[in-house]
Amino acid sequence: MNDRSLIQLASVRGSRLLSLSLCVAMLSACAVGPDYQRPQTAEIAQYKEAEGWRQANPSDALARGAWWELYGDRQLNELVEKLNSSNQTVAQSEAQYRQAQALVRDARGAFYPTLDLSAGKTRSSQGTGSSSSSLSSSASGIRDTYNAQLGVSWEADVWGKLRRGLEANEASAQASYADLAAMRLSQQSELVQNYLQLRVIDQQKRLLESTVEAYERSLKMTRNQYNAGISGRDAVAQAQTQLKSTQGDLVDLIWQRAQFENAIAVLTGQPPAQFKIAETQDIPKLPQIPLSLPSQLLERRPDIASAERLVIAANANIGVAKAAYYPDFSLSMSGGYSSSTSRDLISLPNRFWSVGPKMSLPLFDGGRRSAEVDRTEAKYDETVAKYRQTVLDGFREVENYLVQLKVYEDEAAVRQEALDAARDSLRLTQNQYKAGLIAYIDVVVVQATALSNERTVLNILQSRLIASVQLIAALGGGWDGQLETSQNP
């Protein structure tokens, strides 16, 4: 057969293979396995503590905005921006997301043909004998073969195995993106809470410092009265005990402040030894919580979005497992040159080619495919239950923080009234003591009550600030966000 005949034969076979490939491509319009449908979750008309709520529906493409700016503190804003760029826990989640993106690109690459180029040399030996066939061999029986080959292979996605795999990888990547957002929100929330507690400690520290100064004056006055024979030794001991106890509380606050400062340093990616937050006179303002909150806010929670996208991935993996019951179709082609010498390797007489389709179907595997389908279906049920539980947890957290803020608000009003009364009582008691109408023990009791009420009011403010941060995090970050133009990757 001459070269022209070979070319014509290859053309005919190529046309048939092309027709077969087109048929395979038409068959690949369907995909094995169930199409995804969002699982039903718990439905509520509204929250007990707020209006305007409905069933959760993951929408984490909604903008969250710089929610920490609600507290009106410039240094806090700078610290959060530093966290966004330097936090190492967030950096780990970001690297995991890039890994998930790489798996998506890998899954997409499976749809395209694979092209390979190989070149090499082989040396082989065949035993020589007395037969006449040995006359054509070299005396030593060793032969060199040089090869240069180009090969193409392609797997037809007839049953949708590759498409389901891509669907699973894309959903997993979106879940990883949501995990990144959840980790960033969690770290931001932790930093803001630490900063707010540090500022309340600054205020408590100033309160105790002024109280220590007042107690030092009281101790000095009591000693003077003792030296003058007006009061007894017990009054001096009581004044000294009160002073030292308050100084001990002040030392404890210094230690607590250092812990929060070191935690903020690590959250912003800095060594604690090189980080310092100066004291200020102000506490960040408490943001005003809207009376009516839109239902979309809970839908932005990244943990809900992540859980829902893992359901998508688990659903797609069922299709991948079921596709293993059906045959795989592939097409491979190769061609090149082969010669016993490297000289004139690339020449017409040394060329070769091959082309052909392939079908493979495992006939018996001991139930492995059936077990894999059962496993993927059970995994799907697990992810659905986890998704529903995540939604329920979201409802619970928002309910808790809303009622917590309401209770703290009511308690703050009562505590402020108690503090005002304690201040009046202290002023009257000190005047009576200076006039010699009462003993110092009466002053000590009233001073302790007043200081306790001062610190309680600050503690309630701290609790309200922390609860507001926790509510914002439970809502997915703030309540002023609008729809973004771009969607999640």
Provide structural commentary.
The protein is an alpha+beta fold and 489 residues long. The chain has a single domain (35-112, 157-326, 361-474), classed as Outer membrane efflux proteins (OEP), CATH 1.20.1600.10. Helix content is 59%, strand content 10%. The chain is built from 9 helices and 4 strands. The protein has a 4-stranded antiparallel beta sheet with strand order 1-2-3-4. Helix 4 runs antiparallel to helix 7. The longest helix is centred in the middle third of the chain and has 67 residues, at 161-227. The protein is elongated. The two termini are 57 Å apart. Residues 1-15, 17-28, 49-56, 131-138 and 481-489 have low confidence and may be disordered.
Provide a concise account of the structure shown:
A four-stranded antiparallel beta sheet has the order 1-2-3-4. It has nine helices and four strands; from the N terminus they run αααββααααββαα. With about 500 residues, it is an alpha+beta fold.
For this entry, give a set of tags.
four-stranded antiparallel β-sheet, elongated, Outer membrane efflux proteins (OEP), alpha+beta, 4 strands, single chain, disordered C terminus, 489 residues, 9 helices, disordered N terminus
CATH-derived architecture: Up-down Bundle
- The secondary structure category is alpha+beta
Q: What is the fold-level CATH name, i.e. the topology?
A: Outer membrane efflux proteins (OEP)
Q: How many structural domains can be distinguished in the coordinates? A: 1
Main β-sheet description: 4 strands, antiparallel
Low-confidence stretches: 1-15, 17-28, 49-56, 131-138, 481-489
The N- and C-terminal alpha carbons lie at a distance of 57 Å
Cα radius of gyration in angstroms: 39 Å
* Count of extended strands: 4
Which strands sit side by side, in order, in the main sheet? 1-2-3-4
Number of helices: 9
CATH class category label: Mainly Alpha
Shape verdict: elongated
Mean pLDDT: 82
Question: Beta-strand level of the residues, as a percent range?
Answer: 5-15%
The residue fraction in helices comes out at 55-70%
Any idea what the CATH superfamily is called?
Outer membrane efflux proteins (OEP)
H/E element string? HHHEEHHHHEEHH
